Amino acid sequence: MINSNVFSYINVLDKAADAAWLRNEAISNNLANVDTPNYKRQDVSFEDELIRNLNKVEHRTMDAKVYNMDLARIEPRVYTDAEAYSYRLDGNNVDIDTENVYMAENQITYNSLMQCVKSEFQNLKTAMGNGS
Fold first, then answer.
1. What is the pTM of this model?
2. CA angle, 117 as apex, 125 and 115 as ends, to 5°?
């Protein structure tokens, strides 16, 4: 993480990309265990925590909220989803079709985050007069 206010959005995007990467690993693990008896699907908690922290910051503009947010308090966290739920006799609650949809969605999210990071750096480059 870069410690400068100029990089506030980049730091948030970096955290979100880390969460997306971790979610990709969780989904891959779910797919790998689709036939494992009693396996329970895992997911990553991040977006709700980010929104909660943005709402805690007492500023009107998004720029001010991002600038004053404490990113050290926001970490992506792996959790077991629907632990008590299973629609299969073997106790597993992973649906391969649903996981594949989640994987595709997460890949789009990750790619979009990387494009946003690239755009933010291009903006900084332009602001410094080296924007070509």
1. 0.82
2. 110
